[in-house]
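Lecture notes, part 5. Sequence design as translation. It can be helpful to think of inverse folding as translation between two languages: the language of shapes and the language of residues. The source text, in structure tokens, appears below.
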């Protein structure tokens, strides 16, 4: 991206001109906006959001279940390889990224960018829980592999029913004492309300010169004759249409990002498609139940189920209220956003992505079968899954809620074959003037690391000048903490104190 010389948004006959336009007011856009405002206070930034406030789609706490992904308890990040060994590589990568997130949160708390830590983050044990001989052996092997890594050295493990009952009583209530079970625990986990964090960042941006436009739907992004990006916007309240322009555009519109990037016509989006999956969760706000569980507990996904379907029984703190959730139960909708259209999927099909999408469908019949079974599953069957975690659960205390949409990435691999990817994908034009994010988990939890990658790609000329400030924001910036135990200890002590995460 060419360096901007503009110091404020300019109004022209064609519309408002910005240095940067952010599309979507979720955790990704607000994180990037907060970073850029600190790095370049004089840059003009416009933010357009179709809904009436920030963080209402995938960043909303009820649409973003399982928040605080640190790879401490999510078993799909520590697979057993063909050699029989449990690999911790992916878990290390995600944990490094979440540690970066906590450092940036700490910086924002200290600088007053956001409020009290308790308004968006709480310390919470993370527990992995399994039953059966094979699964118990896997969890023991995982414990040994993780214990050897500095990032995970505080893990503890047991197969003792009484000890697990002390960690998470609901896992043991009503359970057969003869059943072999196993659990691993970290006391250093967290629960994050990304809706609250997003809205606090948006408020900060609005108070520091960013032009926030809620209720404004971006309909297209096109390259202008002057080389800038023209953003066509509709005011949903009045129906008025306008055009803004920007030197740089970030498309952080969740499931809506694919169509906008396709419309922008950049080569880098060719071959990409999206596979939408919705989710449902059982939720209880009954204090007699919720107060007896203080942990995120993750199990193993059923055979044939995608990684995003890993069952978990989670304590959640939403707007200061303590609740308990269990799920997910997968569903299917052609919407790319919870507030989107059923035409989102068919309208995303292009000549360049049709073949990869068909290949994904052909090679993932087990996923299709799984989704069909999930959609047609009875209420009693869904409660049976809850009973595997919480044997004495009563149905009267629980309600079924629909969580947000997740659009999984379909793309060509290095051999040109269509594959389904569970994760996030940062797409950027070759000249760095536009970028966007596709995909889902671990998404929000690793937003700072994803945005740092974006800065490297799209603002490379400024990185040497920005690096001292970035290292002030995140002391471990550019360094792997697992390889620096001393720095890891310093960073951990600081974030625990600042974010009030003492166990």
């Amino acid at each position: 991206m060419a360096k901007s010389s503009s110091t404020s948004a300019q109004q022209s006959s064609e519309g408002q001109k910005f240095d940067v336009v952010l599309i979507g007011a979720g955790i990704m856009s607000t994180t990037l906006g907060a970073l850029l405002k600190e790095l370049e206070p004089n840059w003009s930034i416009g933010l357009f959001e179709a809904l009436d406030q920030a963080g209402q789609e995938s960043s909303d706490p009820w649409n973003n279940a399982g928040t605080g992904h640190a790879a401490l308890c999510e078993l799909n990040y520590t697979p057993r390889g063909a050699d029989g060994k449990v690999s911790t590589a992916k878990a290390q990568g995600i944990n490094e990224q979440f540690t970066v997130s906590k450092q940036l949160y700490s910086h924002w708390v200290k600088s007053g960018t956001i409020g009290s830590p308790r308004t968006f983050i709480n310390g919470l044990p993370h527990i992995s829980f399994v039953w059966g001989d094979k699964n118990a052996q896997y969890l023991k092997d995982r414990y040994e592999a993780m214990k050897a890594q500095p990032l995970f050295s505080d893990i503890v493990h047991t197969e003792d029913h009484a000890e697990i009952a002390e960690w998470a009583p609901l896992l043991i209530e009503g359970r057969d004492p003869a059943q072999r079970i196993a659990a691993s625990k970290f006391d250093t986990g967290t629960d994050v309300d990304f809706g609250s964090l997003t809205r606090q960042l948006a408020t900060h941006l609005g108070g520091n010169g960013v032009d926030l436009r809620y209720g404004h739907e971006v309909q297209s992004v096109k390259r202008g004759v002057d080389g800038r990006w023209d953003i066509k916007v509709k005011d949903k309240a009045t129906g008025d249409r306008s055009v803004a322009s920007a030197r740089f555009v970030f498309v952080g519109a969740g499931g809506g990002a694919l169509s906008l990037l396709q419309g922008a016509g950049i080569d880098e989006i060719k071959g990409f498609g999206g596979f939408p999956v919705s989710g449902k969760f059982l939720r209880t706000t009954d204090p007699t139940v919720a107060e007896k569980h203080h942990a995120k507990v993750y199990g193993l996904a059923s055979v044939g189920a995608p990684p995003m379907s890993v069952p978990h029984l989670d304590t959640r703190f939403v707007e200061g209220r303590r609740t308990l959730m269990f799920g997910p139960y997968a569903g299917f909708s052609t919407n790319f956003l919870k507030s989107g259209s059923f035409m989102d999927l068919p309208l995303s099909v292009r000549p360049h992505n049709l073949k990869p999408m068909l290949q994904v469908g052909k090679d993932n019949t087990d996923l299709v079968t799984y989704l069909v079974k999930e959609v047609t599953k009875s209420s009693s069957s869904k409660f049976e899954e809850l009973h595997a975690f919480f044997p004495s659960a009563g149905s009267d205390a629980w309600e079924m809620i629909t969580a947000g949409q997740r659009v999984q990435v379909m793309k060509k691999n290095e051999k040109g074959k269509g594959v389904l990817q569970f994760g996030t994908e940062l797409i950027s034009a070759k000249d760095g003037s536009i970028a966007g994010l596709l995909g889902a988990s671990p998404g929000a939890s690793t937003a700072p690391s994803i945005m740092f990658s974006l800065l490297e790609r799209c603002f490379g000329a400024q990185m040497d000048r920005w690096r001292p400030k970035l290292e002030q924001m995140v002391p471990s910036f550019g360094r792997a903490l697992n390889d620096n135990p001393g720095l890891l200890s310093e960073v951990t002590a600081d974030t625990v104190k600042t974010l009030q995460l003492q166990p």
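The translated text above is only one of many valid answers, since several sequences can fold into similar shapes. The chain has one domain: 16-494.
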